UniProtKB/TrEMBL annotation:
Any Pfam family: MoCoBD_1
Feature: compositional bias, Gly residues: 790-801
Record domain Aldehyde oxidase/xanthine dehydrogenase a/b hammerhead: where: 27-133
Annotated region (Disordered), positions in chain: 779-815
Protein known as: Xanthine dehydrogenase
NCBIfam families the UniProt entry points to: xanthine_xdhB (TIGR02965)
Organism: Streptomyces incarnatus
Length: 815
């Protein structure tokens, strides 16, 4: 076993324990960025001047009326920026734009003594606009050829030969919606300036180092004059990876210019209308199968809705392409990617970061093609799994080294859920109920862990031991409720060999650990855990030398366990506190800076080849649903999940992450329906679903009636911290099983062999129209159904989702 993976005697990792701030969360005493305003004197409040048009060039911006409003102190405009007027890393996001690019774009910011004064001041600012044509939907952009950023192409094998060898060829298209993060805490920042002009920013950010970088270039000062701290976030889900930077820069600029603290916080409507979302995608595809239903070739084009600027769209698209295979061996593939430029908010990172979009495409294809092939969807999926010992690689060339786990979790979930018996029960129920149908579907996942950009795969930590034996750890990861800090406390206590209560964790800040990567890509525990472990190992090595002298033994024979140092073969002991005190008096350094870099990664973005991921996380979910044939309403009766987290660092945290990720994924696929005004009227481009009253989020009523989550056992991951695997993002994709179960329940309303085109999100309305289409379908004797269109199924852009599927008759001659 590798040094990084090996666990010592009586480790603190692997012990189920609650979130380190759980008591603070449930009692309301946990502090978030905006709570700090109450502890800060003379704070000014920032409020945006939004332009409610989708696209236009600013011809006049008059701020004088705002300054006449009582309580308004200053109006920030582009003329006030001493450095670079840009809030992004691609330099395509002006902080103060002269061209409005989406409905609600902020063009100036008003600072007021109170939030109400700032709001009234913002309303008084006069903006004149030369309106320009706007592209709101993906279809608008595709028709206009409006694209930006890279257009990668991933090629593997001989696609043309693969289709020539296929007994069955199908083509189709599929469009699916994005998703709003809807974190509980909206974007917030609090900026202060000290007597030397140095800026200190409290920010709700997943990427403090990048927030620091953007603020420094907006202010035109070096990074060492800007410190960013993230106490904790009330949720992030990727929405606070890139987008907090500009908001923090507004607060910092205001503080720099006025000398007073500036508070920034978006209200819910502003957050929904000004910040980016998960990328919606459009896919066109062609797939070939052999006579046994094994994939021979795939040719697809994925188009992501990037919004008005690039943000993180390029890496999101890259990860989508890298995950279109999911758990399936595709010997010949050609997949192209594009990013549409639309006049909507700039779409950004969201849990899974393109992976869910790519995986959804192949799962949709298999769900639609299974009836046309005369195969049970479960059987079709299983036939196409990566197989161990076959030397199979992904379409981008990375070997699939744990293919056996794909089948292991699949078989275990079948056994745990009693699939065979329940399928018979469901068949009997459906035969007896013409207006209510049930279905049971299983889907699996293979999700790559690491940042696609190799340089981001590094982490840092600073660990301090005080004379009394207490330990303080700092690391570069941020806490957004996911339990990263809890795991880091457990890693530190395990490595040092001390009880958990001896360790405390400090808030994440850039003057303690520099140049950190975002807490994203599910890599927080891997990178920061490796760094914390490295720092603690340095300290333990020094302390073992001290203990060896005191115990009269060799350092290699000394073990520190549960806060006591002992030498092998001896009864002598030395308590941790005494050991630390002794080390101090011997002038042994009791602080250490730790570092970790993920080894074995390489990626060529131009050729789209390499091994960008350290390992793959696996899982399988079985979901049973019941659909009402009169309304399309449905309920999730039962969910069984087996998920691979390696050797869990913190099982209670991990099970919570699996449950939460699954529910969030189910929300994206079945409930959360983003809609924009696509009319040519005065509100064109306006987000229509800009509140919880119009944007349906999963709630208790959508939770499965029975929800069973099991972590895969005996699953040590070599080369990862204490044998663990990432858990943040992969479980979200387990929710594909909900959508596929709905598809199968809808098909049960029609004749045998019907192929169901299902919109995404599969809202009750979309389900109703799909089952109406299934009822109208007729099936040919060879089991191939007439392909239909899910009439009435719509995406948030007002365009039909799903798409036509066509059987290529010329390829069926061997069928």
């Amino acid at each position: 076993m590798s040094h990084l993976s090996e666990r010592p005697e009586k480790p603190v990792v692997g012990v189920p324990m609650p979130h380190e701030s759980a008591n603070l969360h449930v009692t309301g005493t946990a502090l978030y960025t905006d709570d700090l305003v109450q502890r800060t004197k003379d704070v000014l409040h920032a409020y945006p001047v939004q332009v409610m048009k989708a696209h236009g060039r600013i011809t006049a911006l008059r701020t004088e009326p705002a300054l006449a409003v009582p309580g308004v102190v200053r109006v920030l405009t582009g003329a006030d920026v001493p450095g670079v007027n840009d809030a992004g890393m691609k330099h395509d996001e002006p902080l103060f734009p002269d061209e409005v690019m989406f409905h609600g774009h902020a063009v100036a910011w008003v600072l007021g003594e109170t939030l109400e004064a700032a709001r009234l001041g913002a309303a008084a600012v006069e903006v004149e606009l030369d309106e320009l044509p706007s592209l709101i939907t993906l279809q608008d952009a595709m028709a206009a050829g409006s694209y930006h950023g890279a257009q990668p192409v991933m090629v593997h094998g001989d696609v043309d030969a693969g289709f020539a060898d296929s007994a069955h060829v199908f083509t189709g298209e599929f469009q699916f919606s994005g998703q709003e993060h809807f974190y509980l805490e909206t974007h917030a920042a609090l900026a202060q300036v000290d007597e030397n002009g140095q800026v200190f920013i409290q920010s709700s950010t997943q990427h403090p180092s990048e927030t620091q970088e953007i603020v420094s270039h907006v202010l035109g000062v070096p990074a060492h004059e800007v410190t960013v701290q993230c106490l904790r976030m009330g949720g992030g889900f990727g929405g606070k990876e890139m987008q907090p930077h500009g908001f923090a820069a507004v607060a910092a600029l205001g503080a720099k210019l006025t000398g007073r603290p500036v508070r920034f916080r978006l209200n819910r409507t502003q957050d929904l209308t000004m910040s980016g979302k998960r990328h919606g995608f459009h896919a066109t595809w062609k797939i070939g199968f052999d006579a046994d239903g094994r994939i021979q070739a795939l040719d697809a084009t994925l188009t992501a809705d990037g919004g008005w600027s690039l943000d993180l769209s390029e890496p999101v698209l890259a990860r989508a392409l890298c995950h279109i295979d999911n758990t399936y061996w595709i010997p010949n593939a050609r997949v192209a990617g594009r990013i549409a430029k639309t006049n909507t908010v700039s779409n950004t990172a969201f849990r899974g970061f393109g992976g869910p979009q790519g995986m959804l495409v192949i799962e949709d294809i298999l769900g639609r093609c299974a009836p046309l092939l005369g195969l049970d969807p479960m059987e079709l999926r299983e036939r196409n799994f990566y197989q161990p010992g076959q030397g199979q690689t992904t379409p981008y060339g990375q070997p699939v080294t744990q293919a056996e786990r794909i089948s292991t979790v699949w078989r275990q979930v079948q056994d745990d859920a009693g699939i065979a018996d329940r399928k018979r029960e469901i068949a009997a129920f459906n035969a007896a109920h013409p207006h209510t149908k049930r279905a049971l579907a299983i889907t699996g996942i293979k999700f790559g862990i690491s940042f696609n950009l190799t340089a981001f795969n590094q982490g840092g930590a600073l660990v301090l031991i005080y004379k009394d034996g207490s330990v303080l750890i700092n690391h570069g990861g941020t806490e957004m409720g996911q339990g990263l800090h809890t795991k880091m406390l457990q890693v530190a206590a395990t490595t040092l060999g001390i009880p958990l209560h001896k360790v405390r964790l400090a808030p994440t800040r850039t003057d303690k650990v520099p140049n950190t990567s975002a807490t994203a890509a599910s890599s927080g525990a891997d990178l920061n855990g490796g760094a914390v472990k490295n720092a603690c190992e340095q300290l333990r090595g020094r302390l073992l030398q001290v203990a060896a002298t005191q115990l009269g033994a060799n350092a290699s024979d000394v073990r520190i366990t549960e806060g006591v140092a002992r030498a092998l073969g001896s009864d002598k002991e030395l308590a941790w506190d005494d050991l630390v005190r002794t080390a101090y008096f011997q002038r042994v350094q009791l602080s250490a800076s730790g570092f970790y870099r993920t080894e074995g990664l390489h990626w060529d973005a131009k050729t789209f080849r390499g091994s960008p991921f350290k390992y793959f996380a696996h899982g399988a979910a079985a979901t049973e649903v019941e659909v009402d044939g009169f309304t399309g309403a449905y309920r999730i009766r039962r969910v069984d999940i087996v998920h691979d987290v390696g050797d869990s660092l913190s099982p209670l945290i991990d099970i919570g992450q699996v449950e939460g990720g699954f529910v969030q994924g189910a929300g994206w696929l079945t409930l959360e329906d983003l809609r924009w005004d696509v009319s040519d009227g005065p509100h064109r481009g306006r987000l229509l679903t800009q509140a919880a009253s119009t944007y349906k989020l999963p709630s208790f009523s959508e939770m499965p009636e029975e929800f069973n989550v099991t972590l895969l056992e005996n699953a040590t991951e070599e080369g990862a911290v204490y044998g663990s695997k990432a858990v943040g993002e992969p479980p979200l994709m387990l929710a594909f099983s909900v959508r596929e179960a709905l598809r199968q329940a809808i098909a049960a309303f029609g004749p045998s062999g019907v192929s169901v085109d299902l919109a995404s999100p599969a809202t009750p309305e979309a389900v109703y129209w799909a089952l109406q289409e299934a009822r109208r379908s007729d099936a040919s004797p060879n089991g191939h159904a007439r392909a239909g269109f899910a009439a009435g199924g719509h995406t948030g852009n007002g365009h039909a989702a799903g798409g036509r599927i066509r059987t290529d008759a010329t390829a069926l001659n061997g069928a």
